[in-house]
Amino acid sequence: MKLLIKPDRGFGKIEVELDESLWKRIEELARRYGVSPERVVEIALNGEFKKPKGDLEKLEEKVEELERKVWKLEMEYAPLRYKAYGLSEDNKILAIELSGLIAENNQLRRFLRLSPNRNPELRKLISYYLQG
In angstroms, what CA-CA distances link 100 with 6, 104, 107, 131, 132? Predict the structure, then answer.
């Protein structure tokens, strides 16, 4: 891969031959950070790297410790989430059954020539459990 570097002003230009593995690494960095490959090369040539603040090893240890804590919390939380999902599915089934029973009750009331029961609060509750 040939890299051509042109100055903003003037006539001088530099041609550099890059091997394929280096160019792939530059493209990988460009994709990871969301910049163009030309910008990656520019940063490398200008030395505009951000220096890490603090000791990098200590920061990595802290990240590993936080990851362990997250996994520990996830292990405690996963069974609760599974139970909550089961309860929400049970609530949906009960809401469907209740809706059917209300419809059947209203049909029987019409058959007996009574006014059907309209309970908007109960219907809102049923629709809440059907959507959740």
Answer: 76, 6, 11, 16, 18
Please name the residues in contact with 125: beta carbons below 8 A apart, sequence gap of 6 or more.
95
User: For residues 75-106, b (16+ Cβ closer than 10 Å) or e, as one string?
Assistant: eeeeeeeeeeeeeeeeeeeebeeebeebeeee
> Is the pTM of the predicted complex or chain greater than 0.70?
no
Q: How do residues 100-116 score in pLDDT, each as one tens digit?
A: 999 999 999 999 999 98
Q: Check whether 35 has a pLDDT greater than 90.
A: no
CB 17 within 8 A of CB 11: no
Section 80-109 average pLDDT: 94
Element containing residue 31 per DSSP (H, E)? helix 20-33
- Tell me the C-alpha distance between 124 and 52, whole Å: 55
Q: Which two structure tokens, joined as six digits, stand for 121? A: 């609060």
CA–CA separation, 95 vs 44, rounded Å?
A: 62
List, in sequence order, every residue forming a beta bridge with 4; answer none if it has no partner.
15
The Cα 7–Cα 99 span in angstroms is: 75
